[in-house]
Amino acid sequence: MEVHQVADESAMKALGAQLGHRLSVGDVVLLRGELGAGKTTLVRGLLEGLGHVGAVRSPTFNLVQSFETSPPVMHADLYRVGSYLGIGLEDYLDTHLSLIEWPDRAEGLIDPASAWRVEIDFTEIGRSVKISPPGT
After folding, report:
1. 83 or 68, greater pLDDT
2. Separation of alpha carbons 19 and 16, rounded Å
3. Angle at CA of residue 112, ends 94 and 110, nearest 5°
4. 2-132: CATH, from 3.40.50.300, 1.10.340.30, 3.40.50.970, 1.10.238.10
5. Which residues pair with 78 in a beta bridge?
6. What is the CB neighbour count within 10 angstroms for residue 118?
7. C-alpha closest to that of 49 among 30, 63, 69
8. Phi and psi torsions of 118, nearest 5°
């Protein structure tokens, strides 16, 4: 597990860009953290690092967004759902890099041991970001 201390939004985006370059199609990243912790900001940096130009908003209301980057990215925010069933997450797992906020609501779909895990916590000076690769 890696632990990064992040002081501000630009540092969170830079960390996201660094993480993105370590990932590929078929990888799943489970993003955990309280509301406002910076999950979507990390995703924004990851997407920008992969060449996405344009807005990146939390998919809280449309639940799933896909981006035609290289690799293609699927970003899901499951905060408002009780279950992943019926929203089509399965359709992306083999063809996209999948980023899932509030992954507890996808229990049974993804084995956490086979996924990247990112946990963001508030600290006095910003955020603490723990990144665990699959198998750890």
Report:
1. 68
2. 5
3. 40
4. 3.40.50.300
5. none
6. 26
7. 69
8. -125, 125
**Angle separating helix axes 39-49 and 9-20, nearest 10 degrees:** 50
Using one digit for the tens of pLDDT, what is the confidence trace for 6-58? 999 999 999 999 999 999 999 999 999 999 899 999 999 999 999 998 877 76
* CA distances in angstroms from 23 to 16, 60, 97, 123, listed in the order given: 11, 23, 7, 27
> Could you tell me the sign of the dihedral formed by the alpha carbons of 13, 58, 3, 68, in that order?
negative
User: Across-strand partners of 118?
Assistant: 31, 131
Q: Which two tokens stand for residue 130?
A: 């723990």
Q: Is 67 helix (H, G, I), strand (E, B) or coil?
A: strand
> What is the DSSP track for 72-90?
-EEEEE-TT-S-STTS-GG
Q: What does the domain layout of the chain look like in residue ranges? A: 2-132
Find out whether 78 and 54 touch, Cβ atoms under 8 Å: no
Cβ atoms 80, 60 nearer than 8 A: yes
